[in-house]
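no rush on this but wanted to send it before i forget. theres a chain ive been looking at and ive put its sequence and its fold in C-alpha coordinate form underneath. i want to understand how the C-alpha coordinates follow from the sequence so walk me through it. thanks a lot i owe you, the record is right below:
>
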Amino acid sequence: MLVIQNTLSGKKEEFKPINPPHVSMYVCGPTVYDYFHIGNARSFLISDMIRRYLEYKGYNVKFVMNLTDVDDKIIHKSKKENRSFSQVADTFTQAFFEDIEKLKVKPATLYPKATGHISEIITLISNLIDNGFAYNIDGNVFYNVARFKDYGKLSGKKTDELEVGARIEINNEKLNPLDFALWKKAKEDEPSWNSPWGKGRPGWHIECSAMSCKHLGDTFDIHAGGSDLIFPHHENEIAQSEAATGKPFVNYWMHFGFLNINEEKMSKSLGNFFTARDILAKYPAEAIRMFLFQTHYASPLNFSEEAIQAAQKGLEKFTNLVDKINSELSAPSQAAPMTDFDFPTFYSAFESTMDDDFNSPKAIAVLFDFIKEVNRKITESPSLNSGFYLKTKEFLEKTAIGVFGITSFEKEVPASSGIEDKLIELLLSIRATAKKEKNFTLADQIRDELLNLGVAIRDTKDKTLFKKV
Protein backbone atom coordinates (compact mmCIF):
# COMPACT_ATOMS: atom_id res chain seq x y z
CA MET A 1 0.00 0.00 0.00
CA LEU A 2 1.48 3.31 -1.12
CA VAL A 3 1.14 6.19 1.34
CA ILE A 4 1.94 9.84 0.65
CA GLN A 5 2.60 12.67 3.10
CA ASN A 6 -0.15 15.08 2.08
CA THR A 7 0.65 18.73 2.84
CA LEU A 8 -3.08 19.49 2.77
CA SER A 9 -3.90 17.16 5.67
CA GLY A 10 -0.48 17.20 7.31
CA LYS A 11 -0.38 13.41 7.53
CA LYS A 12 0.36 10.29 5.53
CA GLU A 13 -2.56 9.03 3.49
CA GLU A 14 -3.12 5.94 1.39
CA PHE A 15 -2.80 6.82 -2.27
CA LYS A 16 -6.12 6.29 -4.03
CA PRO A 17 -6.08 7.72 -7.56
CA ILE A 18 -9.29 9.13 -8.99
CA ASN A 19 -9.32 6.84 -12.02
CA PRO A 20 -6.94 3.89 -11.53
CA PRO A 21 -4.71 2.76 -13.14
CA HIS A 22 -4.45 6.33 -14.45
CA VAL A 23 -2.69 8.98 -12.34
CA SER A 24 -2.78 12.72 -13.03
CA MET A 25 0.24 14.66 -11.77
CA TYR A 26 1.18 18.34 -12.12
CA VAL A 27 4.56 19.83 -11.21
CA CYS A 28 5.46 23.51 -11.24
CA GLY A 29 8.13 23.95 -13.87
CA PRO A 30 10.67 26.71 -14.51
CA THR A 31 10.25 30.40 -15.23
CA VAL A 32 12.38 30.50 -18.36
CA TYR A 33 14.49 33.62 -17.88
CA ASP A 34 17.82 31.96 -16.98
CA TYR A 35 19.52 28.58 -16.55
CA PHE A 36 17.85 26.70 -13.70
CA HIS A 37 19.84 26.21 -10.51
CA ILE A 38 20.63 23.05 -8.58
CA GLY A 39 17.74 23.75 -6.18
CA ASN A 40 15.32 23.67 -9.13
CA ALA A 41 17.05 20.50 -10.30
CA ARG A 42 16.14 18.82 -7.00
CA SER A 43 12.46 19.52 -7.67
CA PHE A 44 12.67 18.22 -11.24
CA LEU A 45 14.58 15.08 -10.28
CA ILE A 46 12.43 14.22 -7.25
CA SER A 47 9.24 14.56 -9.28
CA ASP A 48 10.87 12.40 -11.96
CA MET A 49 11.62 9.72 -9.37
CA ILE A 50 8.05 9.83 -8.02
CA ARG A 51 6.62 9.53 -11.52
CA ARG A 52 8.98 6.62 -12.31
CA TYR A 53 7.97 4.73 -9.15
CA LEU A 54 4.29 5.20 -9.89
CA GLU A 55 4.96 3.66 -13.31
CA TYR A 56 6.91 0.85 -11.61
CA LYS A 57 3.73 0.20 -9.60
CA GLY A 58 1.79 -0.19 -12.83
CA TYR A 59 0.14 3.21 -13.02
CA ASN A 60 -0.29 5.11 -16.27
CA VAL A 61 0.92 8.58 -15.32
CA LYS A 62 -0.13 11.72 -17.16
CA PHE A 63 2.70 13.99 -16.06
CA VAL A 64 2.34 17.71 -16.76
CA MET A 65 5.04 20.31 -16.08
CA ASN A 66 4.31 23.90 -17.01
CA LEU A 67 6.67 26.49 -18.45
CA THR A 68 6.16 30.06 -17.26
CA ASP A 69 7.12 32.01 -20.38
CA VAL A 70 5.74 35.46 -19.50
CA ASP A 71 6.71 36.96 -16.17
CA ASP A 72 8.26 40.06 -14.58
CA LYS A 73 11.71 38.45 -14.55
CA ILE A 74 11.49 37.55 -18.24
CA ILE A 75 10.34 41.06 -19.12
CA HIS A 76 13.14 42.62 -17.06
CA LYS A 77 15.75 40.45 -18.78
CA SER A 78 14.35 41.22 -22.23
CA LYS A 79 14.68 44.96 -21.59
CA LYS A 80 18.17 44.53 -20.19
CA GLU A 81 19.30 42.55 -23.23
CA ASN A 82 17.23 44.54 -25.75
CA ARG A 83 15.42 41.42 -26.92
CA SER A 84 11.76 40.48 -27.06
CA PHE A 85 10.34 38.59 -24.09
CA SER A 86 9.60 35.64 -26.38
CA GLN A 87 13.24 35.48 -27.53
CA VAL A 88 14.41 35.30 -23.91
CA ALA A 89 11.80 32.65 -23.11
CA ASP A 90 12.66 30.58 -26.20
CA THR A 91 16.39 30.69 -25.38
CA PHE A 92 15.98 29.40 -21.86
CA THR A 93 13.19 26.97 -22.72
CA GLN A 94 15.63 25.27 -25.07
CA ALA A 95 18.32 25.36 -22.36
CA PHE A 96 15.88 23.79 -19.90
CA PHE A 97 15.17 20.87 -22.23
CA GLU A 98 18.87 20.37 -22.89
CA ASP A 99 19.71 20.26 -19.18
CA ILE A 100 16.90 17.96 -18.04
CA GLU A 101 17.83 15.55 -20.84
CA LYS A 102 21.41 15.49 -19.52
CA LEU A 103 20.01 14.88 -16.03
CA LYS A 104 18.18 11.84 -17.43
CA VAL A 105 14.74 13.23 -16.56
CA LYS A 106 11.98 11.43 -18.46
CA PRO A 107 10.08 13.82 -20.74
CA ALA A 108 6.75 14.98 -19.36
CA THR A 109 3.54 14.01 -21.08
CA LEU A 110 2.95 17.72 -21.71
CA TYR A 111 4.91 20.96 -21.21
CA PRO A 112 2.15 23.62 -21.46
CA LYS A 113 3.22 27.24 -21.80
CA ALA A 114 1.42 30.14 -20.17
CA THR A 115 1.30 32.13 -23.41
CA GLY A 116 -0.43 29.22 -25.10
CA HIS A 117 -3.30 29.31 -22.60
CA ILE A 118 -4.41 32.95 -22.57
CA SER A 119 -7.97 32.08 -23.60
CA GLU A 120 -8.28 29.50 -20.80
CA ILE A 121 -6.87 32.03 -18.31
CA ILE A 122 -9.39 34.69 -19.41
CA THR A 123 -12.25 32.19 -19.12
CA LEU A 124 -11.16 31.21 -15.60
CA ILE A 125 -10.89 34.84 -14.48
CA SER A 126 -14.32 35.58 -15.97
CA ASN A 127 -15.79 32.70 -13.96
CA LEU A 128 -14.23 34.07 -10.78
CA ILE A 129 -15.72 37.52 -11.44
CA ASP A 130 -19.13 35.99 -12.15
CA ASN A 131 -18.91 33.94 -8.94
CA GLY A 132 -18.05 37.01 -6.89
CA PHE A 133 -14.47 35.97 -6.11
CA ALA A 134 -12.69 38.58 -8.24
CA TYR A 135 -13.10 42.24 -9.14
CA ASN A 136 -11.87 44.55 -11.88
CA ILE A 137 -10.46 47.97 -11.10
CA ASP A 138 -9.48 49.94 -14.18
CA GLY A 139 -8.15 46.92 -16.09
CA ASN A 140 -6.47 45.22 -13.12
CA VAL A 141 -8.32 42.14 -11.89
CA PHE A 142 -7.75 40.96 -8.32
CA TYR A 143 -8.81 37.85 -6.40
CA ASN A 144 -10.91 38.65 -3.34
CA VAL A 145 -9.26 36.53 -0.65
CA ALA A 146 -11.90 37.41 1.97
CA ARG A 147 -14.56 35.64 -0.11
CA PHE A 148 -12.80 32.26 0.05
CA LYS A 149 -13.44 30.88 3.52
CA ASP A 150 -10.85 28.10 3.26
CA TYR A 151 -7.95 30.42 2.38
CA GLY A 152 -4.87 29.20 4.25
CA LYS A 153 -5.90 25.54 4.48
CA LEU A 154 -2.73 24.35 2.70
CA SER A 155 -0.17 26.54 4.44
CA GLY A 156 -1.92 26.77 7.80
CA LYS A 157 -1.75 30.56 7.63
CA LYS A 158 -4.66 32.65 8.90
CA THR A 159 -5.81 35.66 6.94
CA ASP A 160 -6.04 37.97 9.95
CA GLU A 161 -2.43 37.19 10.91
CA LEU A 162 -1.28 37.65 7.34
CA GLU A 163 -2.91 41.05 7.13
CA VAL A 164 -1.11 42.22 10.25
CA GLY A 165 2.28 40.52 9.99
CA ALA A 166 3.09 39.74 6.36
CA ARG A 167 5.05 42.04 4.09
CA ILE A 168 2.36 42.93 1.61
CA GLU A 169 3.01 45.11 -1.40
CA ILE A 170 1.07 48.34 -0.91
CA ASN A 171 -1.57 48.77 -3.57
CA ASN A 172 -4.41 51.21 -2.92
CA GLU A 173 -6.48 49.62 -5.67
CA LYS A 174 -7.03 46.42 -3.70
CA LEU A 175 -10.02 45.89 -1.42
CA ASN A 176 -7.75 43.91 0.89
CA PRO A 177 -3.93 43.91 1.08
CA LEU A 178 -3.95 40.10 0.71
CA ASP A 179 -5.78 40.20 -2.62
CA PHE A 180 -3.57 39.15 -5.51
CA ALA A 181 -3.45 39.91 -9.22
CA LEU A 182 -5.24 37.68 -11.71
CA TRP A 183 -4.85 40.06 -14.66
CA LYS A 184 -2.38 42.94 -14.92
CA LYS A 185 -3.22 46.02 -16.93
CA ALA A 186 -0.84 46.54 -19.86
CA LYS A 187 2.16 48.77 -19.34
CA GLU A 188 4.15 50.48 -22.04
CA ASP A 189 6.74 48.23 -23.72
CA GLU A 190 5.40 45.07 -22.04
CA PRO A 191 3.71 42.08 -23.68
CA SER A 192 -0.08 42.14 -23.53
CA TRP A 193 -3.19 40.39 -24.82
CA ASN A 194 -6.74 41.55 -25.38
CA SER A 195 -9.27 40.72 -22.67
CA PRO A 196 -12.73 41.82 -21.47
CA TRP A 197 -10.92 44.15 -19.05
CA GLY A 198 -8.61 45.67 -21.66
CA LYS A 199 -5.12 44.78 -22.79
CA GLY A 200 -2.94 43.11 -20.21
CA ARG A 201 -1.27 39.89 -19.13
CA PRO A 202 -2.01 37.16 -16.59
CA GLY A 203 -0.72 36.91 -13.05
CA TRP A 204 1.57 34.03 -12.15
CA HIS A 205 -0.84 32.05 -9.96
CA ILE A 206 -3.74 31.96 -12.40
CA GLU A 207 -1.52 30.49 -15.11
CA CYS A 208 -0.99 27.23 -13.21
CA SER A 209 -4.66 26.89 -12.33
CA ALA A 210 -5.70 27.32 -15.96
CA MET A 211 -3.06 24.94 -17.35
CA SER A 212 -3.48 22.18 -14.76
CA CYS A 213 -7.28 22.15 -14.95
CA LYS A 214 -7.28 22.16 -18.74
CA HIS A 215 -4.96 19.19 -19.07
CA LEU A 216 -5.79 17.18 -15.92
CA GLY A 217 -9.38 18.15 -15.07
CA ASP A 218 -11.02 20.22 -12.33
CA THR A 219 -9.82 17.70 -9.72
CA PHE A 220 -6.63 15.69 -10.16
CA ASP A 221 -4.43 13.37 -8.13
CA ILE A 222 -1.05 14.94 -7.32
CA HIS A 223 0.36 18.46 -7.36
CA ALA A 224 4.03 18.76 -6.45
CA GLY A 225 6.71 21.42 -6.14
CA GLY A 226 9.25 23.02 -3.85
CA SER A 227 8.21 23.84 -0.29
CA ASP A 228 8.81 27.52 -1.04
CA LEU A 229 5.72 27.38 -3.29
CA ILE A 230 3.28 26.35 -0.54
CA PHE A 231 2.53 30.00 0.15
CA PRO A 232 1.46 32.01 -1.65
CA HIS A 233 1.58 30.19 -5.00
CA HIS A 234 -0.10 26.88 -4.21
CA GLU A 235 -2.42 28.45 -1.65
CA ASN A 236 -3.59 30.85 -4.34
CA GLU A 237 -3.98 28.08 -6.89
CA ILE A 238 -6.39 26.31 -4.54
CA ALA A 239 -8.37 29.47 -3.88
CA GLN A 240 -8.71 30.30 -7.58
CA SER A 241 -9.48 26.82 -8.82
CA GLU A 242 -11.98 25.78 -6.16
CA ALA A 243 -13.80 29.12 -6.30
CA ALA A 244 -14.14 28.78 -10.08
CA THR A 245 -15.21 25.12 -10.24
CA GLY A 246 -16.80 24.46 -6.85
CA LYS A 247 -14.81 21.21 -6.69
CA PRO A 248 -11.73 20.05 -4.74
CA PHE A 249 -8.66 21.06 -6.73
CA VAL A 250 -6.01 18.46 -5.81
CA ASN A 251 -6.18 15.33 -3.66
CA TYR A 252 -2.48 14.99 -2.74
CA TRP A 253 -0.08 17.90 -2.30
CA MET A 254 3.64 17.01 -2.17
CA HIS A 255 6.41 19.47 -1.32
CA PHE A 256 10.17 19.10 -1.55
CA GLY A 257 12.65 20.41 1.02
CA PHE A 258 15.11 23.26 0.50
CA LEU A 259 18.60 22.72 -0.86
CA ASN A 260 21.41 24.68 0.81
CA ILE A 261 24.99 25.20 -0.31
CA ASN A 262 27.63 24.48 2.34
CA GLU A 263 25.01 24.96 5.09
CA GLU A 264 23.94 28.35 3.72
CA LYS A 265 20.92 29.31 1.69
CA MET A 266 21.82 29.40 -1.99
CA SER A 267 22.18 33.03 -3.10
CA LYS A 268 23.83 34.91 -5.94
CA SER A 269 24.88 37.63 -3.47
CA LEU A 270 26.77 35.07 -1.39
CA GLY A 271 28.50 33.69 -4.47
CA ASN A 272 27.22 30.16 -3.80
CA PHE A 273 24.69 30.01 -6.63
CA PHE A 274 25.19 27.00 -8.93
CA THR A 275 23.22 26.23 -12.05
CA ALA A 276 22.54 22.66 -13.06
CA ARG A 277 24.90 23.31 -15.98
CA ASP A 278 27.68 24.20 -13.53
CA ILE A 279 27.26 20.88 -11.75
CA LEU A 280 26.80 18.81 -14.92
CA ALA A 281 30.11 20.17 -16.19
CA LYS A 282 31.85 18.53 -13.22
CA TYR A 283 29.80 15.44 -12.38
CA PRO A 284 27.81 12.85 -14.33
CA ALA A 285 24.02 12.90 -14.05
CA GLU A 286 24.03 9.57 -12.20
CA ALA A 287 26.11 11.08 -9.37
CA ILE A 288 23.78 14.07 -9.08
CA ARG A 289 20.74 11.80 -8.98
CA MET A 290 22.37 9.49 -6.42
CA PHE A 291 23.27 12.46 -4.22
CA LEU A 292 19.72 13.85 -4.28
CA PHE A 293 17.95 10.53 -3.74
CA GLN A 294 20.03 9.62 -0.68
CA THR A 295 17.98 12.17 1.30
CA HIS A 296 14.20 12.00 1.69
CA TYR A 297 12.50 14.44 -0.64
CA ALA A 298 10.77 16.40 2.14
CA SER A 299 13.95 16.96 4.17
CA PRO A 300 16.35 19.87 3.70
CA LEU A 301 19.54 18.92 1.90
CA ASN A 302 23.01 20.45 1.99
CA PHE A 303 24.96 20.47 -1.26
CA SER A 304 28.73 20.25 -1.10
CA GLU A 305 31.51 18.99 -3.33
CA GLU A 306 32.37 16.34 -0.74
CA ALA A 307 28.81 15.03 -0.60
CA ILE A 308 28.42 14.63 -4.33
CA GLN A 309 31.87 13.02 -4.60
CA ALA A 310 30.82 10.52 -1.93
CA ALA A 311 27.69 9.76 -3.95
CA GLN A 312 29.81 9.21 -7.04
CA LYS A 313 32.08 6.89 -5.07
CA GLY A 314 29.07 4.86 -3.96
CA LEU A 315 28.02 4.42 -7.58
CA GLU A 316 31.17 2.38 -8.24
CA LYS A 317 29.51 -0.60 -6.55
CA PHE A 318 26.72 -0.42 -9.12
CA THR A 319 29.00 0.03 -12.12
CA ASN A 320 31.29 -2.79 -11.02
CA LEU A 321 28.35 -5.19 -10.77
CA VAL A 322 26.98 -3.97 -14.12
CA ASP A 323 30.37 -4.68 -15.71
CA LYS A 324 30.38 -8.17 -14.19
CA ILE A 325 26.87 -8.90 -15.49
CA ASN A 326 27.69 -7.62 -18.98
CA SER A 327 30.84 -9.74 -19.02
CA GLU A 328 29.08 -12.90 -17.89
CA LEU A 329 26.14 -12.49 -20.26
CA SER A 330 28.46 -11.96 -23.22
CA ALA A 331 30.18 -15.29 -22.50
CA PRO A 332 28.78 -18.74 -23.40
CA SER A 333 26.07 -19.80 -20.95
CA GLN A 334 27.24 -22.06 -18.13
CA ALA A 335 25.70 -25.51 -17.81
CA ALA A 336 25.29 -25.22 -14.04
CA PRO A 337 21.72 -25.02 -12.73
CA MET A 338 20.18 -21.78 -11.53
CA THR A 339 21.49 -20.98 -8.05
CA ASP A 340 18.93 -20.17 -5.36
CA PHE A 341 18.83 -16.48 -4.58
CA ASP A 342 16.07 -14.65 -2.75
CA PHE A 343 15.13 -12.05 -5.35
CA PRO A 344 11.52 -11.75 -4.04
CA THR A 345 12.75 -10.58 -0.63
CA PHE A 346 14.72 -7.73 -2.19
CA TYR A 347 11.80 -6.70 -4.40
CA SER A 348 9.58 -6.70 -1.33
CA ALA A 349 12.05 -4.65 0.72
CA PHE A 350 12.49 -2.15 -2.10
CA GLU A 351 8.76 -1.71 -2.57
CA SER A 352 7.95 -1.46 1.14
CA THR A 353 10.40 1.41 1.57
CA MET A 354 9.24 3.26 -1.54
CA ASP A 355 5.60 2.67 -0.61
CA ASP A 356 6.31 4.60 2.59
CA ASP A 357 6.12 8.09 1.07
CA PHE A 358 8.80 7.41 -1.57
CA ASN A 359 11.55 6.80 0.99
CA SER A 360 14.38 6.81 -1.53
CA PRO A 361 17.32 6.73 0.95
CA LYS A 362 16.06 3.50 2.51
CA ALA A 363 15.31 2.06 -0.93
CA ILE A 364 18.87 2.81 -2.08
CA ALA A 365 20.12 1.11 1.08
CA VAL A 366 18.18 -1.96 -0.04
CA LEU A 367 19.96 -1.79 -3.39
CA PHE A 368 23.36 -1.68 -1.68
CA ASP A 369 22.37 -4.72 0.39
CA PHE A 370 21.32 -6.46 -2.81
CA ILE A 371 24.69 -5.76 -4.44
CA LYS A 372 26.50 -7.03 -1.35
CA GLU A 373 24.55 -10.31 -1.38
CA VAL A 374 24.94 -10.78 -5.14
CA ASN A 375 28.71 -10.28 -4.88
CA ARG A 376 28.83 -12.77 -2.02
CA LYS A 377 26.91 -15.32 -4.08
CA ILE A 378 29.27 -14.77 -7.04
CA THR A 379 32.28 -15.34 -4.80
CA GLU A 380 30.83 -18.49 -3.28
CA SER A 381 29.53 -19.92 -6.56
CA PRO A 382 31.91 -19.13 -9.43
CA SER A 383 29.95 -21.37 -11.84
CA LEU A 384 26.69 -19.40 -11.79
CA ASN A 385 24.76 -19.67 -15.03
CA SER A 386 23.27 -16.91 -17.18
CA GLY A 387 19.85 -17.24 -15.51
CA PHE A 388 21.21 -15.77 -12.29
CA TYR A 389 22.81 -12.84 -14.08
CA LEU A 390 19.68 -12.21 -16.15
CA LYS A 391 17.54 -12.02 -13.01
CA THR A 392 20.12 -9.75 -11.35
CA LYS A 393 20.12 -7.52 -14.41
CA GLU A 394 16.31 -7.43 -14.41
CA PHE A 395 16.23 -6.36 -10.76
CA LEU A 396 18.66 -3.51 -11.38
CA GLU A 397 16.85 -2.44 -14.54
CA LYS A 398 13.55 -2.17 -12.67
CA THR A 399 14.91 -0.43 -9.57
CA ALA A 400 18.30 1.29 -9.90
CA ILE A 401 17.67 2.21 -13.55
CA GLY A 402 13.88 2.32 -13.94
CA VAL A 403 13.10 4.19 -10.73
CA PHE A 404 16.32 6.04 -9.85
CA GLY A 405 18.26 6.33 -13.11
CA ILE A 406 21.59 5.91 -11.33
CA THR A 407 23.30 3.35 -13.54
CA SER A 408 23.12 1.84 -17.01
CA PHE A 409 23.84 -1.40 -18.81
CA GLU A 410 25.10 0.46 -21.86
CA LYS A 411 28.75 -0.42 -22.19
CA GLU A 412 31.30 2.28 -21.55
CA VAL A 413 34.33 2.00 -23.79
CA PRO A 414 37.25 4.37 -23.94
CA ALA A 415 37.34 6.38 -27.14
CA SER A 416 40.61 6.18 -29.02
CA SER A 417 40.31 8.63 -31.90
CA GLY A 418 41.28 12.29 -31.99
CA ILE A 419 44.07 14.23 -30.35
CA GLU A 420 41.84 15.12 -27.37
CA ASP A 421 41.16 11.48 -26.56
CA LYS A 422 44.81 10.59 -26.98
CA LEU A 423 45.78 13.31 -24.51
CA ILE A 424 43.24 11.96 -22.02
CA GLU A 425 44.67 8.48 -22.46
CA LEU A 426 48.17 9.87 -21.91
CA LEU A 427 47.05 11.42 -18.61
CA LEU A 428 45.44 8.14 -17.61
CA SER A 429 48.70 6.34 -18.35
CA ILE A 430 50.60 8.81 -16.15
CA ARG A 431 47.97 8.34 -13.45
CA ALA A 432 48.33 4.54 -13.65
CA THR A 433 52.08 4.88 -13.18
CA ALA A 434 51.57 7.23 -10.24
CA LYS A 435 49.26 4.71 -8.56
CA LYS A 436 51.81 1.92 -9.03
CA GLU A 437 54.40 4.14 -7.39
CA LYS A 438 51.89 4.89 -4.58
CA ASN A 439 51.85 8.56 -5.53
CA PHE A 440 48.13 8.82 -4.76
CA THR A 441 48.24 12.60 -4.46
CA LEU A 442 49.17 12.93 -8.14
CA ALA A 443 46.71 10.22 -9.16
CA ASP A 444 43.85 11.98 -7.37
CA GLN A 445 44.90 15.34 -8.81
CA ILE A 446 44.72 13.98 -12.38
CA ARG A 447 41.30 12.45 -11.68
CA ASP A 448 39.94 15.69 -10.17
CA GLU A 449 41.36 17.95 -12.88
CA LEU A 450 39.93 15.72 -15.61
CA LEU A 451 36.54 15.89 -13.89
CA ASN A 452 36.78 19.68 -13.77
CA LEU A 453 37.33 19.56 -17.54
CA GLY A 454 34.22 17.43 -18.01
CA VAL A 455 35.88 13.99 -18.19
CA ALA A 456 34.70 11.39 -15.68
CA ILE A 457 36.91 8.36 -15.17
CA ARG A 458 36.20 4.99 -13.66
CA ASP A 459 38.71 2.38 -12.57
CA THR A 460 37.86 -1.23 -13.36
CA LYS A 461 39.81 -4.37 -12.61
CA ASP A 462 41.61 -4.35 -15.94
CA LYS A 463 41.67 -0.73 -17.11
CA THR A 464 40.44 2.81 -16.58
CA LEU A 465 37.46 3.99 -18.60
CA PHE A 466 36.56 7.60 -19.29
CA LYS A 467 33.40 9.39 -20.35
CA LYS A 468 32.88 13.00 -21.38
CA VAL A 469 30.06 14.46 -19.30
